[in-house]
Design brief:
5 strands; Rossmann fold; 9 helices; five-stranded parallel sheet
Length: 185
C-alpha cells in the first residue's frame, strides 16, 4: 500500500506522516527532494525557497519530477507499505497512481487553527502574521502553470479528506480506519 499525503499549510500532515511511520510504513517526503537540491546549491532552506526550487525542478524536469525521484527509491517488495508526504501537484499524484495500491489523503483544518499550528512549530521561516500566512497559502493553492503547486486540484483528486480539528487521538482513529479500509481492497 502507498499512501500519499497532501494538505494546506499547518493542517497536520507531518503528524499524520509520523503516525504512518509508527504503523510500520516506510516514509518519504517530496519536500526532502527539494531540500537536498537547496543544500547542493548552498542556499538557506526557507518556505519560499522550497516553493521556488520545487517549481523550478518541475519546470526543468517535468511536473512529476519529485514523485518520480521518490518512486525510484521505493522498493517493489509487496510486503512494504509507504507513506509519501508533501504532494503538491496533480502530476505527482498521477505518477504515484501508476503504481498499484495508491491512495491520496488530503488533511485539512480550519484556517485559524492551521495558522496557530505553524506559529507553534516555527519551521523554515514560516509566516508569522495571519496576513502573511494567507498570502503564502494563496501562492500554493492554484496556478495556471502546470509546474507550480496546485493544492486545490490536489484536494479534488484525493481519495479521502481528513478534517484534523480535534485531538491527536481522534486524528489517529481516522487514520486507522483509512488503513483498515485500504487493506480490505
Amino acid at each position: 500500500m502507498i499512501i500519499g499525503l497532501t494538505s494546506f499549510i499547518g493542517a497536520g500532515k507531518t503528524t499524520v506522516g509520523d503516525y504512518f511511520v509508527k504503523q510500520g510504513f516506510v516514509f518519504y517526503s517530496l519536500s526532502d527532494v527539494i531540500r537536498e537540491e537547496i543544500r547542493k546549491r548552498g542556499q538557506e532552506i526557507t518556505r519560499d525557497r522550497l516553493v521556488e526550487v520545487g517549481n523550478g525542478l518541475r519546470k526543468k524536469f517535468g511536473s512529476s519530477v519529485l514523485a518520480d525521484r521518490i518512486i525510484s527509491k521505493i522498493e517493489k517488495a509487496p510486503e512494504k507499505n509507504y507513506a509519501i508526504d508533501s504532494i503538491r501537484n496533480p502530476a505527482e499524484i498521477e505518477a504515484l497512481r501508476r503504481g498499484k495500491d495508491f491512495r491520496l489523503i488530503f488533511i485539512d483544518a480550519p484556517i485559524e487553527l492551521r495558522f496557530n499550528r505553524i506559529k507553534e512549530r516555527q519551521r523554515e521561516k514560516d509566516p508569522t502574521s495571519f496576513e502573511d500566512f494567507k498570502k503564502a497559502e494563496q501562492r500554493e493553492m492554484e496556478s495556471n502553470d502546470s509546474a507550480s503547486q496546485q493544492l486545490l486540484k490536489c484536494r479534488q483528486m484525493a481519495d479521502a479528506v481528513i478534517i484534523n480539528d480535534s485531538t491527536v487521538k481522534a486524528l489517529y482513529k481516522k487514520i486507522d480506519k483509512l488503513i483498515e479500509d485500504g487493506r480490505k481492497k
